[in-house]
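task queued by scheduler; priority normal; single chain, no ligands, no partner chains; default sampling; output format set to C-alpha cells
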Amino acid sequence: MNLTGQTIDELSRALAAGATTSRALVESALEAIAADGRAFTHVDFAGARAAGDQSDAARAKGHVPSPLAGIPISVKDLFDVAGETTAAGSLILRNAPPAAHDAPVIARLRKAGVVIVGRTQMSEFAFTGLGLNPHWPMLPNPHDEHRAPGGSSSGAAVSVARGQAAVGLGTDTGGSVRIPAAFCGLTGFKPTQARVTREGVFPLSPSLDSIGPIANSVACCRSVDALIADAPTGRHAPVGIASLRFAVPVDYVLDDMDEPVARAFDAVLARLSAAGAYIERLRVPEFARVPEINARGALANAEAYAVHRAAGLLSQRERYDPNVIARIEIGGRMSGDDVHRVSEARATLIRDVDARAKPFDAMLFPAVATVAPRLSDLADPQGFARANGLALRNASLVNFLDRCALSLPMHDERALPSGLMVVGERMSDAQLLAIGEAIEAAH
C-alpha cells in the first residue's frame, strides 16, 4: 500500500480491516526511500521492520494503542532518539555521542505504537526557511526539482510528499513546519508553543520553538498533536463553515505576493464566502511594526547566539553553513537592551493584535507570499537572503504573536503548491483544528 497522499484515518482503517499490515506499510516506505533517500540523514531499516512486526503481533492480540499504531513516520534531525546522534543538520554535531534517551515527544509516539523509519534533512540548526543544507545532497522540491522544498523541516515535508512516511515530525520557530508544507502541497500544524514540551530537542530560539506535524490532512495533524501534547485538549465539536468569521489582514502579509499565490488566495476566499463564511478585509497596522521591532536583530538571532555560545560551537565557525552563521552572529551584536526592547515590543504587539482579532474566529492569509523559489536564484548570498526573508515573513509573525496556525494546500493541481494560513488564538488549538477541517471540506 503506497503511502503517498494517504491519511492516518485511511491507513488506520486499512490496518483494522486487515487490508494491509504495518510491515507492509514499512516496506512501502523503505522502498520509496531506496528509490530516492535524499530526504533522510539516517534510515533505521532494521529497527523500522522490527517495529512493524511488533505492531502486527500486538494488533493480532487486540492491542492497538492509538490510531497511529503501526504507521510509519519520519522525525527531523534535531529530536533526541535513543542510540542516535542528534546532529541538527550540522557537520559540527555529526560525530557527537548518541542520545541516551528519547525526547519526550518521541517517547510518546513510541508508546502510541508509531513506527519511526528515520531522521530527515533540515536547514542547519533549523535557522533558514528554504530547506537548503550544504552538508547534505541537494534536496529539491518534489513538485519541481529546480525549486527549493522549504525549511527548515525540509526532509519532513519531502518524506511525506514522496510516500516515505505518513507524517513528518518537525519543528517551527518561524514557519519551519508551515513553509515546507506550503511549498510541497501538504498540511502543516504549528501548535501553541506551551502545549508541547521541547525537552530533548536541539533548540533554535527557546521563546519561539514549537513542535508540529506535516501530513496529508488536518485530521492527521490532530491525531499526532493528541499524542505529543503535554496535556491534550479534547476534540472540538465540528463547526459549520457558514458559522465562521474570518479576518483577512491587508497590511504587511499581502505585500509582494507572487501572482499564482494571489490567484489561489482569492479563489479560496471566494469559495469560503460562497459557502457562507463571513470574510472581512481588516487593517492590522500593528503588523507593520515588526520590521522596526527587529531592526537591530530578532529574538531568534539573540537566542540562537546564546545557545551556540553556551554549547561551545562558535569556535568552529568555518564549519557552519555561511547563511546560518551569518544569522547567528547578528545575535552576537545585539545588546541586552536590544533583547529587552524586542521582548517588551512583542508583549505589546500580542496585546494589540489580540484585541483587534478578537471578533473573529481566525485570521486568513498566505502561509508564504511566494511559490517555492528556484534553486538557481538562491546561489548568491543576496538572492538567498531576499528569498529567505520573504519565505519567513508571514509564518514567523505567528510565532512572534504566540498563536497557533495551520497551513492548508490552496492551489489547484495544475499550479505550483501554495498554502493558506489559518491563524487561531493562543491555546485555541482544538478550535483551530476544527476550523481547518471545515475549510478543508469547503475547498
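post-processing summary
- The CA atoms of residues 297 and 333 lie 8 Å apart.
- The mean pLDDT is 97.
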